[in-house]
Amino acid sequence: MTGQTERLRELIAHARVVLWDFDGPICRLFAGHSASGVAAGLVEWLEGRGLHDLLTVDEQETEDPHGVLRAVDRRHPTSDLVAELEERLTQEELRAARSAMPTAFADPLIHTWKAVGSRLAIATNNSPRVVRGYLESRGLLACFDPHIYGRSQDLRLLKPHPHSLNRALTAMGAAPSTALFIGDTPTDCIAAREAGVPFLGYARNERKGKLLKEAGATDVVGSLEPLLAAVRSKGRHSCKPSE
């Protein structure tokens, strides 16, 4: 047994509750509707309303839609402008979900983990409306419902703030040490650390893996396949008759 396999089995053994980020570990939300295009569209919408000066040059050129949203919220927290911008982002995410690409092995992993008795939840910076729609389209909603914790009007609580993880743990009556959070960004890693939850990083390429390790992630996989194998192994062992 390799060192990674042993470590995955160790993480799984202690995880009565499994928390998932959405965009990354479960699907590539912007696979067919680029995030950079969405960010540019939000900037253009602000410019069309004479609000160009709300953003710095770097913020205007960001490829991250959440970066635009956070920047406006920093200048006008909880304002109608932020609420309208957030709704525009939600509509773009809903559009993106129609062409989202499922992460390899995510669907069977979710079904298998649920089948062996673990409880599952989503902790994401995306709109919960988007998450629900995608999960329903893949036949996965029942694996998580009602534990889907996403972006709210209070943008200060987006990850790396641990709010969504803490909401999930509280609602499920779970201690942080009995959970595992699967995410693919440094903000996910930081949120897990702040919540006291063990973290497993998913990195679909070398660049993402490097960013996760720089953020302090010690457990990172480049594919969900070995995790699926480990969960299936747990299921087989738990079904063995006692001697």
Task: Give keywords.
single chain; 243 residues; alpha/beta; 6-stranded parallel β-sheet; two-stranded antiparallel sheet; 12 helices; 8 strands; disordered C terminus
Our count of helices gives 12
- Helical content stands at 40-55%
Structural class: alpha/beta
- Rg on CA atoms, Å: 19 Å
Can you describe what's shown?
The chain contains 12 helices and 8 strands. It is of the alpha/beta class and 243 residues long. Helix 10 (186-195) links the parallel strand 6 (179-183) and strand 7 (199-202). The two termini are 24 Å apart. Mean pLDDT is 94; it is low at 239-243.
Compact overview of the structure:
This protein has helices spanning 3-13, 35-48, 57-60, 65-75, 80-97, 106-115, 128-137, 141-144, 163-172, 186-195, 206-214, 225-238, and strands spanning 17-20, 27-28, 101-102, 119-123, 148-149, 179-183, 199-202, 220-221. With 243 residues, the chain is an alpha/beta fold. It starts with a helix and ends in a 5-residue tail after the last helix.
Describe the secondary-structure layout.
Elements: H1 3-13, E1 17-20, E2 27-28, H2 35-48, H3 57-60, H4 65-75, H5 80-97, E3 101-102, H6 106-115, E4 119-123, H7 128-137, H8 141-144, E5 148-149, H9 163-172, E6 179-183, H10 186-195, E7 199-202, H11 206-214, E8 220-221, H12 225-238
Parallel strand pairs: 1-4, 1-6, 4-5, 6-7, 7-8
Antiparallel strand pairs: 2-3
Helix pairs in contact: 1-12, 2-4, 4-5, 5-7, 6-12
